[in-house]
TrEMBL record:
Full protein name: Tol-pal system protein YbgF
Organism in which the protein naturally occurs: Chryseotalea sanaruensis
Length: 380
């Protein structure tokens, strides 16, 4: 059935809120977030056949590609297919927006979401395409602004608003050079943004998990609310036990909260899954898990095990070229410290010198290594 016929038949239909479609998609979304991509794709392809005139199936297919990217942002092999699905979502949404008033509200949601996801990919550290990120972000903001006032139609529409409210304040607070850019946009509200993210995570269907992911990351990295971040990471890891990103984040949250007894088996399970070649488990997860285990065993004064895991973290970091990351640099410092405690001063000196080579002069790791090298020189 063509879009024109559907519009004539029912001018109030909102596919985002259609319970029949939601029931059909429920298992597919569970499969998507649990890294059962083949099963999710089969259902989304059927949805695409039935609703090929609507952006929803193309956006969901794009989400599959997005979650293939998430565990290892250095892997760009899925970028092209992801961007193609987002561009198709935009093309179909623009058509509905211009020609079919009944779908205007949904079109605004998908346009904001697709442009938002494109901007997010371009802005990742591994892409750093700021021009494209800014262009996509501007488009997303335009459609977010248009969709205000329609949130009562679907909780999905609140997702973009929540992110805007939070980050429109957070960005200029943390990046003063971007303050002038934000003068052209409406003033946000961080507290409201967090409240809205919680509302989406409780009530939305399609964006529920994405809202939880953002809330977890914000609370852990920006708001220092480790307890809520840990609660969310526990929930996501238990609900989607085969998702390597959630698995890794749960290990990180447990470690940050000082729950070493709980973190230990979680980290070891990550390493076991990497060894078995399980989908999505790779070196990035490995460098996190092995570093945490190194810290755990060092705290127990088990230097043999600590050294083993720090060396593993070093190896995983080198594998993905993350030799300027904190996990790599502090693995080297810890290895140097252990060598020093074992009386192996030449080995200790080697690790501290490596830290100085791989870090910037203003980095804390550089300063720490420099002090340790001076101490070794004085002892000679």
């Amino acid at each position: 059935m063509q879009a024109q016929e559907l519009v004539k038949k029912d001018t109030t239909i909102i596919l985002l809120s259609d319970l029949t479609v939601q029931l059909y998609c429920a298992q597919a979304l569970d499969d998507l977030y649990n890294f059962k991509f083949d099963q999710a794709e089969k259902r989304f392809l059927w949805l695409k056949q039935k609703y090929k005139w609507h952006p929803l199936p193309y956006f969901l297919m794009g989400l599959i590609e997005w979650w293939k990217i998430m565990p290892d942002l250095t892997n760009k092999s899925y970028d092209e297919s992801f961007l193609a699905y987002m561009d198709t979502t935009i093309l179909i949404s623009e058509n509905l927006f211009k020609k079919h008033p009944a779908y205007k509200v949904e079109s605004m949601f998908f346009l904001a979401a697709a442009y938002g996801f494109k901007g997010r990919l371009y802005s990742e550290e591994e892409r750093k395409n700021w021009t494209k990120a800014a262009a996509a972000g501007k488009q997303a903001l335009n459609y977010l602004e248009m969709s205000k006032g329609y949130h009562s139609l679907s909780p999905e529409l609140l997702f973009g608003d929540a992110l805007y409210n939070y980050f429109s304040v957070w960005v200029p607070e943390n990046y003063s050079s971007l303050k002038p850019i934000m003068w052209f946009f409406p003033k946000g509200d961080k507290a409201l943004g967090l409240k809205q993210l919680r509302e989406v995570s409780y009530n939305a269907f399609y964006t529920r998990t994405e809202a939880m992911v953002w809330l977890m990351r914000i609370q852990n990295s920006y708001e220092n609310n480790k307890q809520e971040a840990l609660h969310l990471s526990d929930y996501l890891n238990k609900t989607y036990p085969d998702n390597p990103f959630f698995h890794r984040y749960n290990a990180r949250a447990l470690y940050s909260a000082g729950r070493f007894i709980q973190a230990e088996p979680v980290c070891k399970n990550i390493l076991e899954r990497i060894d078995s070649g399980m989908l999505g488990y790779e070196a990035t997860s490995g460098r996190y898990a092995s570093f945490f285990l190194g810290q755990i065993y060092e705290a127990r004064n088990n230097l043999t095990e600590a050294k083993k895991y720090y060396l593993l973290s070093k190896m995983f970091s080198e594998k993905v070229g993350a030799t300027e990351s904190g996990y790599y640099l502090y693995s080297l410092i810890s290895l140097g410290e252990i060598a020093e405690r074992e009386g192996k001063k030449t080995e200790a000196r080697y690790y501290f010198k490596e830290v100085k080579k791989k870090s910037g002069r203003k980095d804390e790791a550089f300063k720490d290594a420099k002090k340790r090298l001076r101490k070794l020189e004085k002892e000679e």
